[in-house]
Design brief:
Number of strands: 24
Strand order of the largest sheet: 22-23-1-24
Oligomer: single chain
Distance between the termini: 11 Å
Largest sheet: 4 strands, mixed
Number of helices: 14
Bound molecules: uridine-diphosphate-N-acetylglucosamine
Strand content: 15-25%
Helix content: 25-40%
């Protein structure tokens, strides 16, 4: 397994270009299953989850064309889907495989998708996806670890669905299922994440009739057929946020380009309140400079437009360098403080009580060997390593490779002393 070796203490300076959003690219690829025609996607991040998704589509007999792998441009064509199935081998490495459930039900009226199971950050059930599909007429059972779903009439029927809890991929699955259902679906308490809106934009280009995007009520009038199109996915707001923290935490001077500042509202506001000078240069560029004084601030994760849970670990790394106390409350996932104990091993003062972490800063962090436990926790540990004294070795970086394109090269490009230590070939 690869590791990252970081020698901390370098102020990052220069420009970092942000890649496409992993969480937009995944549903966009799944949406290509909704039509027999060609769907061309651009700005796909070159990360492992997207390679997994392309394997999944190929398994279902979709034709996935790229000029090289990993790719940022994909052409997907699914004239016939012979295996409406997401096998365990692929689902276990990427929970977002469940995003194929909605499109398969819509297109072929049947799907067999491995149950994702728990992961490091919590139980993460998909009960709300299934309940909503049942309301649309699907018959769903589980056997041998698989979700087995079928639409008895061959097609789903529009329904009024109220999510008990806001779910991002649940909203995306139902959007895709409803696009080809009979009649109208009204989805209430829907997720408002920019990645959901990006999917709506793509589906509309494919001929779907959807309104209400950006609000918590989505209306989808099912159509007979969808057609091919071309789409560029939005920039990754979590990658952009991570580099903003990298600039701030190292007391550097970073320009973050190819991003969408309009999607970064909560993160930019919190960092500015903490004393980080931030300038929105234009619609695609943000500039972060060194803070004269970094002040600890409380933060609670929320659904969009609140502060993203996917930025919590990175914010915690920043809080270890801020003066005073920051109480960080995790409201989205039940077990998302695994990075905190690793940061404590580096010298951070953090105490955890249930869903709340109290960080007392600033702390002089010192490098050691730490373990990444999930994708965003790994990003938090990289940030801690960038300010720590001496060497930090991060193990299990396959987590970070799932979602950050070329993070080592991008950090090196702005002056970080970081290298990938390849696992010996056995
Ligand atoms: C998506 C993102 C992930 C992000 C998360 C929250 C993708 C591919 N992943 O994950 O990066 O951290 O949103 O912003 O877009 N829940 C249920 N039942 C369900 C579905 C969800 O109880 O059927 C719960 C979850 O356990 C969690 C909360 O709802 O506590 C939110 O989860 P959800 O929005 O569904 O996360 P994902 O879509 O899996």
């Amino acid at each position: 397994m690869d590791k990252f070796l970081i020698k901390g203490g370098k102020a990052l300076r220069g420009t970092v270009a942000i890649s496409g959003a992993k969480n937009s690219a995944l549903p966009a690829m799944a949406a290509a299953l909704l039509t027999a025609e060609k769907v061309t996607l651009h700005n796909i991040p070159k990360v492992r989850d997207l390679i997994t998704m392309s394997k999944l589509l190929a398994f279902m007999d979709a034709k996935v064309s790229v000029t090289e792998m990993p790719a940022s441009d994909y052409v997907i064509e699914a004239p016939k889907l012979n295996h409406a199935e997401a096998p365990y081998e692929l689902v276990k490495t990427m929970r977002a495989s469940v995003l194929t459930l909605g499109p398969l039900m819509a297109r072929v009226g049947t799907a067999r998708v491995s149950l994702p199971g728990g992961c490091a950050i919590g139980a993460r059930p998909v009960d709300l996806h299934l309940k909503a599909l049942e309301q649309m007429g699907a018959e769903i059972g589980t056997s041998h670890g698989y979700i087995e779903a079928r639409a008895p009439k061959g097609r789903l029927t529009g329904a009024r669905i109220v999510f008990e809890k806001i779910t991002v991929t649940g909203t995306e699955n139902i959007l895709m299922a409803a696009a080809l259902a009979d009649g109208e679906t009204v989805l209430e308490n829907a997720a408002r994440e920019p990645e959901v809106t990006d999917l709506v934009v793509l589906l509309r280009k494919m001929g779907a009739e959807i309104s209400g995007d950006g609000t918590s009520t989505l209306r989808i009038r099912g159509v007979e057929k969808l057609h091919g199109t071309e789409h560029t996915v939005i920039p990754d707001r979590i990658e952009a946020g991570t580099f903003l923290v990298a600039g701030a935490i190292t007391r550097g001077d970073l320009t973050i380009s190819n991003c969408a500042p309009e999607h970064l509202g909560a993160v930019l506001a919190k960092m500015e309140q903490a004393g980080v000078p931030i300038e929105i240069v234009n619609k695609t560029t943000v500039h972060v400079r060194s803070a004269k004084k970094l002040t600890g601030l409380d933060m609670t994760t929320e659904e969009y437009p609140g502060f993203a849970t996917d930025m919590q670990a990175q914010y915690m790394a920043l809080a270890t360098q801020a003066e005073g106390t920051s109480v960080i409350v995790e409201r989205i996932f039940e077990n998302r403080f695994l990075h905190a104990s690793e940061m404590m091993r580096m010298g951070a003062h953090i105490s955890i009580e249930g869903h709340s972490a109290t960080v007392r800063g600033p702390s002089a962090l010192s490098g050691t060997v730490v373990q990444a436990s999930d994708l965003r926790a790994s990003a938090g540990l990289v940030l801690a390593g960038l300010v720590a004294n001496g060497e930090t070795m991060i193990e299990r970086v396959y987590h970070i490779d799932r979602g950050y394109e070329g993070i080592v090269e991008k950090l090196q490009g702005v002056g970080a002393d970081i290298e990938r230590v390849h696992a010996p070939v056995s």
